[in-house]
Amino acid sequence: MSLDFFTIVFFAIAVMVFVRLYGVLGQKTGSERPPFLPPEPPRETGDDASAVNDNVIPLPRPAETILREPPRLQDEAPVAPSTETALSSALRLVMAADRGFDPARFVDGAKVAYEMIVTAYAAGDRKTLKTLLSKEVMDGFAAGIDEREKRGEKVEFTFVGIDKADIQEASVKGRIAEITVRFAAKVIQVTRTADGTVVEGDPARLTDLVDVWTFARELGTSDPNWRLVDTRAVD
Question: How far apart are CA 78 and CA 164, in angstroms?
C-alpha cells in the first residue's frame, strides 16, 4: 500500500507535537512544588551570616511543647504546692498513735454522740450522760439539770438534725488524744413551768445550736469510746 504525500506530512506533524508535549509534561525538571512543604530547619548563623528574612512567619509549636514546664534557671529551686495544714498534721499524729482512728468515721460517731447528749440533757437522763461525759463535764450537766428540777421546769425537746460537723483541732498529749468538733444543728426546744407556761423557746420555731465540743480518749486501752471533756457554746 502506498502513502500519499499529505498522509506523510500529517504523520510528521503528529510526531513533532508528541515530542514537544513529552518534553514539557513527561519529564521532571526538579522545580516542581511537592504536595506538602515541611518547615526548613533553622540555619546556623555565624558572624558573617546574613540576617534572617523578616517576612518568615514561624509555625506554631506542637501542643506538647507549649504545655511542657518551661526550663528553670540553674539557681531556681522547684516550687511544690503545700497542702499540709496544722490540722492535717495533728490528725496524722493521732492516726499514728491510734491505728484504728479514721477522721471521717470519728465525725459520724461524734454526730450520734452529740444528738444523744443534748437529748439526754433536755430529758434529765443522767444515766445516759454518765456514759458519754467526763466527770468534770458530767458535774456541770448534772448541776444544770438539778437547777431546772428545783424550779419545777421541764423541757420539750425535738432534735431536727445536724447541718454541719467539722473537726477544728486535734492533739495527742501523752497517752490522751483529743479531737475538737464544731457542730451546727437545728432543734425545737421549749421550757415550761409546772403549770405549762412557756418560759423559754417557741414550739413553732426552729432553734439553731452551735457548739464546739472536745472529745478525748486514752490511747492503748481496751476502751474504744471517746468521752466529752469540754463544751463551748458559740453565739
Answer: 38
Report in angstroms the alpha-carbon separations of 145 from 17, 40, 121, 133, 210: 122, 90, 7, 15, 20
Domain ranges of the chain: 86-233
Q: Are 181 and 212 in contact (CB under 8 A)?
A: yes
Q: Which of 91, 101, 207, 192 is nearest to 148 (CA)?
A: 192
pTM beyond 0.90:
no
Which grid cell is 10?
500529517
DSSP-assigned beta bridge partners for residue 208: 186
Query: What pLDDT digit, counting tens, does each position of 174-215 carry?
Result: 999 999 999 999 999 999 999 999 999 999 999 999 999 999
DSSP, res 46:
-
Cell of 126: 443522767
C-alpha–C-alpha distance, residues 195 and 84, integer Å: 57
* CATH class of this structure's domain 86-233: alpha beta
Strand, helix or coil for residue 10:
helix
What residue type is assigned to position 2 of the chain?
S
